[in-house]
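Researcher: Structure prediction, please.
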Amino acid sequence: MASKEEITETLKAQFTSIKERGKVLAQMLKARADIAATRRRMRSVFADLGEEVYGRMAADQEGAWSGDDAFDAYKARIEGLQAELNQQELVLQEVMAGKEKKVESDVVEEAEVIEEEKEEEEA
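Model: Predicted structure follows.
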């Protein structure tokens, strides 16, 4: 049977091991967070570069970009996405305009109900 001291030493060793594993885990999580942040910054820079290249490509119809199938495919995809985005924005504007009209009609209806209640109270 293990003595009290042996049990205490075993527990201390396990707690030390857990503490060390916790530190390693924390370091790993920090490193992964740093990697993810760097990847996000890289994607942002690539996106900025892509916008710049697309702007030059769209402006230079007869230049170095013309006739390149890969760039033409990207340009077509971008133009398609821009058209889709414009369509979605129009739908949102229509929904918002409809909501504003509904809010106005709700206010008018509420005012009518209040007037009717006042008339009933007076009668």
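Model: Residues 4-59 form the longest helix (56 residues).
Researcher: Thanks, that helps.
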